[in-house]
Specification:
Number of helices: 3
Strand order of the largest sheet: 1-2-3-4-5
Order of helices and strands: HEEEEHEH
Radius of gyration: 14 Å
Largest sheet: 5 strands, antiparallel
């Protein structure tokens, strides 16, 4: 992932989670379709790490990212995510303004 794409994705994610804290690292492996995010969250002493598989789909509304196989550095949160994902499909819209290069990095 090039520097500009990484910066844009970090800015996008930080904008989405700013109420809760700040992302401190982002690693994407487009070959295995895995993403890892580490964030410092408000009220937490230790950072939270989230690892997940992902897919990107084109829908009538635009591109959406769907996470799966979520693991976190908090056991209870991993279990909650697994339980939630059993019954709910999570589909995160990718805004049209997000540069195509950044989305291509995820899709490769």
């Amino acid at each position: 992932m090039n520097v500009i794409s990484r910066y844009l994705l970090r800015a996008f994610i930080n904008h989405k989670i700013k109420r809760f804290g700040k992302m401190t690292s982002l690693n994407i492996d487009s070959q295995t379709k895995r993403i890892e995010i580490t964030a410092d969250l408000a009220g937490e002493k230790e950072p939270l790490t989230i690892r997940a598989s992902y897919s990107i789909e084109q829908t009538e509304e635009g591109l959406v990212l769907s996470p799966s196989n979520v693991e976190t550095s908090r056991e209870w949160m991993t279990e909650l995510a697994r339980e939630f994902l059993k019954t709910q499909a999570v589909r995160i819209p990718i805004p049209g303004g997000l540069p195509t290069a950044a989305v291509k990095i995820l899709r490769l």
